[in-house]
Amino acid sequence: MQQRNDIHAVLHAIERGQRFAVTAHARPDGDAIGSMLACGMILEQMGKDFDLVSFDRVPRIYKELPCADSIRQTPILEGEYDAVILLECDSIERSRLAGLEGRFLINIDHHLSGKNFADVNWIETEACAVAEMVYDLAAISGVQVTPEMATCLYTAVLTDTGAFCYSGTDAHTFELASDLVRQGADPALIARRTYFTNPAAKMMLLGAALSNLHREGGIAWMWITYDDMLRTGSQEEDCEGLVNYAIGIAGIEVAVFMRELEDGRVRLSLRSKGTLNVANVAESFGGGGHQHASGCTLDGPIPDTTARILDHLRLVCGVTLDNRAAIG
Ligand SMILES: [Mn+2]
Fold this sequence. Notes:
By secondary structure, the chain is of the alpha/beta class. The chain folds into two domains: 2-194, Alpha-Beta Complex (inorganic pyrophosphatase (n-terminal core)); 201-323, Diaminopimelate Epimerase, Chain A, domain 1. It is built from eleven helices and twelve strands. The N and C termini lie far apart (53 Å). Manganese (II) ion binds at residues 31, 88, 110, 129-130, 160.
């Protein structure tokens, strides 16, 4: 019953205040953007004043979501607020926003790596997306789920479940999706906007990543350099989902996608389709996430990063040297 208490603590904190800021983690994904927008719509209906803020800009595929242009990109939160609502953050730092220290914070998260860092904390690791929690919040707030809100929440659920592919997707996930469709979300339109609007640059980047695909036993890894990003004219968001080509290989249990950053560090995306918990792997390198999808950032260069992550994965996967086989 703790979680029901937590949702009520969040509701009471919202009822008590008038002016709110809502943010999510840096490099926002579909759940972060969709849930922020829906949260704003809830606050709007409750007669509250609010600002939606993000350290990074809204990824291209989410720009057509209702009210997406109301999300303000800023490195620092200024102004007076009664509370700041953080979605999917395990700390203030995860938002990358400056100016959060000392403010009244409300934390809504569904990650295994979620932490009680805020003044009010509501963490449900069973939720398939933080959007599911925002939907529950809408229900107990008594606000109406509009077609616009349903569109934002459906987009969040669709993307955070890997288009209903990840484990944890169950009858309840489809009940939630069904509710959202009944309330005005258009599945075909949302799927088209989300998955069928790739820029050509992303496909060029995929080519670069696939030419760097390697395999050892149940582990696959691939990378792109900063130069690949420049050469193909790709943006950070074009890296989204490339790791799925590695985890999609038969016999692969864990996949790593590495992207060299401008400052030489390397951003890792980890995926698992077996029993290995990649949230634990990411956490041991200072990152976080879910059992089947996580991320972290290591010091480069790519060969060193590859050696470090592979050493770790060989250990936790128990992959033997006899099992080695390389592609290409
Ligand atoms: Mn999420």
